[in-house]
C-alpha cells in the first residue's frame, strides 16, 4: 500500500493528542486524594508518557523533517505502517545516542529516554497494546 501524503503527520498528531489527554487525566487524578502507592504509580506513568510525548512531538518531527500543519484523519492501514516506521527510527536514534563517545548531556539523556519510549510504544502498539504504557482506561484511586 502506498502511503498517502501526510500519513506520518496524521498518525503523530493522533497519537500525540492521546498521550496529552492521558497526561492531563493523570494531572487531574494527582489533584485528588490518593494513596502513596497510587500517587507513585501515576507519577511514574506520567514520566513515561512525558518521554513518549517528547518523542512524538520533538524527536520524530525533527528526524523526519515534518512541517506542522493541519492534521488530517488517519486512514485505515496508515497507523500500523507509521508505527513500524516509528519503531525503526526510534531504534536508530537510541543506538546513535548510546554509541556517542563521552558522557551524554541532560538533553541527550532526555532524547535517549524518548527514543526508548517510542520504540517500546510502537513495538507494543503493533501488537495491539499501548506500548507498554497500558491502555487509555481509568486510573486507580
Assess the beta-strand content as a share of residues: under 5%
Following the backbone from N to C, one meets helices and strands in this order, namely HHHH
The number of distinct β-strands equals 0
Work out the helicity level. 55-70%
Walk me through the topology.
Layout: H1 7-30, H2 36-63, H3 78-99, H4 106-125
Description of the structure:
The chain is built from four helices and no strands. The model is unreliable at 129-141 (pLDDT under 50). It has helices spanning 7-30, 36-63, 78-99, 106-125. 26% of the residues are buried. Helix 2 (36-63) crosses helix 4. The protein is mainly alpha-helical and 141 residues long. The longest helix is centred in the middle third of the chain and has 28 residues, at 36-63.
Keywords for this entry:
141 residues, mainly alpha, 4 helices, 67% helix, disordered C terminus
